[in-house]
Specification:
Structural class: alpha+beta
Protein name: DUF4247 domain-containing protein
Strand content: 15-25%
Organism: Actinopolyspora saharensis
Strand order of the largest sheet: 1-2-6-5-4-3
Transmembrane segments: 6-26
Keywords: Membrane, Transmembrane, Transmembrane helix
Pfam families: DUF4247
Length: 146
């Protein structure tokens, strides 16, 4: 067999591997949003109103178990837990796992700014913002940012 034949076979194998990789990446989703969508049951009736990017899901597991599973798969920037639930902050998204009427957990995946607006009363001083609009702190000492 000629060497050209092996180059053609290798090229076809590389293209096939690329197609499989792309299908896997785009069908399973990436980040915490994709992880939650692939591992929990969608519950559109529990979406928070006023946020088109908000998606609600449910699980029969406890909020701490759900949050730990998500955090193991995708390490959050910040995590806060209180009696109302577990709040995971990511760069663009937030995952909030809260108890659901003694029947497991409701999981909200939402844009970080919308999550901060909804849950400012809980995560206000924890997620690092100093304003109620989710803006980042610009301080740095005397004269900084002026």
């Amino acid at each position: 067999m000629k060497p050209k034949f092996w180059f053609v076979i290798a090229g076809m194998a590389a293209v096939l591997a690329l197609i499989i990789a792309l299908v896997t990446i785009f069908s399973t989703g990436t980040g915490p949003r994709g992880y939650v969508a692939n591992h929990y049951t969608r519950a559109a009736q529990l979406d928070k109103p006023g946020d088109d990017d908000n998606k609600a899901y449910t699980s029969s597991r406890k909020p701490s178990e759900v949050a730990n599973a998500v955090a193991r798969a995708w390490t959050p920037i910040s995590q806060y837990t209180d009696d109302s639930g577990v709040y995971l902050r990511y760069r663009d998204d937030a995952v909030i796992a809260q108890p659901r009427n003694n029947r497991g957990t409701v999981i909200h995946v939402m844009d970080i700014d919308q999550a901060y607006g909804h849950y400012h009363h809980v995560v206000g001083g924890v997620w690092g913002w100093s304003s109620p609009h989710g803006q980042t702190f610009r301080g740095g000492g005397p004269g900084a940012g002026k």
